[in-house]
Amino acid sequence: MAVAVDARMVVAVKAQDRDEEFAAYMAARQPSLLRTAYLLTGDQHTAEDLVQTALAKLYLSWDKVQRRELIDGYVRRILVNEHNSLWRRSWKKREVTTEYVPETPAPYEEPDDGKGQALWDFVQTLPKKQRAAIVLRYYEELSEAETAAVLGVSVGTVKSQTSRALATMRSKVDDHPTLSRTTEEER
Amino acid sequence: MSDNERLSRELRNRADHTGGHPISFDDVKRSANKMKWQQRAATGAVAAVVLAIGIPVGMSIATGDGNSNDGQVANPSPTPTETNTPSPIVTKEVTLTVDGASRGAEPGVVYVYDNQIIQPDGTAIDVDYDYSNVAVFGEGWIGIRIDDEGNPTADVLGGDGTVIRSFPSGYTIAVSSSGEVAAFEDTPGGGTLTRYDEAGEPAQSWDFANSVILELEGILADGSVVYSTEGTDPALMVARASGDTQPVLGASNAGGVARESGLITGMVSVDEMVPESCWNLFDSNGALWPKAKCAYTLGHFNESEQLIIGKPSYLDSIGDGLVAIVDVETGKALVEYDTPDDSFIANSVWEDDAHVLTLVYSPAGWHILRLDTEGNIENVNGAALPGEAEFAPVQFGAPS
């Protein structure tokens, strides 16, 4: 019986340590993950759902990630993969939408007479994978190689995705600063 | 300012102005638990099979060298010995939709719908919960219900559906094609795995001292119970009829257990990054396929134990985009049914040796569809069943 009790204690201590470690990581990284998720989704509620799901998946995999320095990359990848799967949850009315540009979630002062809004509107019309490449490169400031690793694509694909997005941005935003929406069909 | 800088600045501005509600650790744990049981339900041990006992297997298995996953099963069971050269399999791809499907007969398996257990003859028994698993148990039933926190409880029900006894459980019960049932009772600091005979009487029990929850995967012909453990050291195990327990080395959990042949589909790896899971087929001597296969999550065996239900390689708990019928011998799909982008599959089970029942959500609502190995689709329930996409209205159960 003593052996059984000892074994139970080991299991309980392991689980407690694990939870504490995960909770500390979560507390430290949650604000950043929410910001990235918001940029990916354009909607605050969806971003919260996305982060909660990504963290839950990370929690389930926590013991498998031996090298803790890789966790940020790991959770980013879950976040992006999960977001790319969101079409299968299109029934959740508040989630996802590519046809309509969501409202700005918080008070926001335009620094540049509407061009910033046009730029943001443009970002939200990008296909999901292209948008993820843009967010990872220009917000997370990952290198092309790091972005490729998170997206699970080649560096060449990242280059072409980002350059295509920038070219479209120049033609649509700069030439038509009032751009507000682009339909799925147009893409 | 360059285009890159403009874009970076705008993204930072937008990100800085987003708020959001803080997500608590409890929220995350609750989501994780729900995911775990949803994935369990999708690959779970309760197969809807007909009562067909002792069908000779007679299949051939490409044994390979099993080098990548050196599995061992505790209970030696009949291992297929004939070897044929398999003919090449070309997977037929079919769009899974109710449109154009002919009307089919009522389900040939027990299922739970709208707080009723409905049997193949149409008899309905009122129950208090939409059980996620249900099986005939002696004169009554046994079912697993999941509360809002994701915690499972097993209810033993009388023939009229009233609850006789309840106990904390794992997410699954195991049911054999002969009608045996195995259930795990979680007790403080330990638990008991019990195999019940066809009359619902305890046949054998195994006590576990450590506080670990067992998920039950299947029952072998000699009375052994295949189960998996989760947590820090996940493992696929067999509780032997001799009383011992032994690991299936190289596998962390099972998708399906073949009672007669003793074959087990075991998950050998999962990678959230790709994302995918890889599987092999195990018998008493170890892994049978030379290399693990990652195209599908492998689920239940059919009655003759020659076909397996295949699901997406990575189950993300938000609904499956495909279901396949996979050949055991080669691991290749005979047919793959893919949903349109606006639809998903909640669950799929074998109805008989050649047909799969699958529960599909589309914008029109829920449908039970009957699929065969040729790519044919029947609409079982006619008009769509109402219900939110988040809550599958039908739970397939075990045979009556």
By DSSP (H or I, 4+ residues per run), the number of helices of chain A equals 7
Helix content of chain A: 55-70%
Lateral strand order in the biggest sheet of chain B: 1-25-24-23-22
Please tally the helical runs of chain B, counting DSSP H or I stretches of 4 or more residues.
2
Secondary structure: helix percent of chain B = under 10%
Structural class of chain A: mainly alpha
Quaternary structure of the protein: heterodimer
Stretches with pLDDT under 50, minimum 5 residues of chain A: 1-11, 87-105, 177-187
Strand-pairing-aware structural class of chain B? mainly beta
| Envelope shape of chain B | globular
**What is the CA–CA distance across the termini of chain B?**
72 Å
**What series of H and E elements makes up the topology of chain A?**
HHHHHHH
- The average pLDDT of chain B is 81
Largest interface: A-B, 64 and 51 residues
Main sheet attributes: strand count, strand direction, barrel closure of chain A: none
Tell me, rounded to a whole number, the average pLDDT of chain A.
73
Radius of gyration of chain A: 20 Å
Form type of chain A: elongated
Low-confidence stretches of chain B: 42-84
Query: How many strand units of chain B?
Result: 30
Q: Strand content of the residues of chain B, in percent?
A: 35-45%
Describe this structure in a few short sentences.
The complex is a heterodimer of chains A (187) and B (400). With 187 residues, chain A is mainly α. Chain A is built from seven helices and no strands.
Structure description:
The complex is a heterodimer of chains A (187) and B (400). Chain A is mainly alpha-helical. Chain A is built from 7 helices and no strands. In chain A, helix 1 crosses helix 3, helix 4 crosses helix 7 and helix 5 packs across helix 7. By secondary structure, chain B is mostly beta strands. A 5-stranded mixed beta sheet of chain B has the order 1-25-24-23-22, with no helix packed on it. In chain B, strands 2-29-28-27-26 form a 5-stranded mixed beta sheet, with no helix packed on it. A 4-stranded antiparallel beta sheet of chain B has the order 5-4-3-30, with no helix packed on it. Chain B starts with a helix and ends with a strand. About 11% of the residues of chain B have low confidence. Classes of the chains: A mainly alpha (187), B mainly beta (400). Chains A and B meet through helix 1, helix 2, helix 3, helix 4 and helix 5 of A and helix 1 and helix 2 of B.
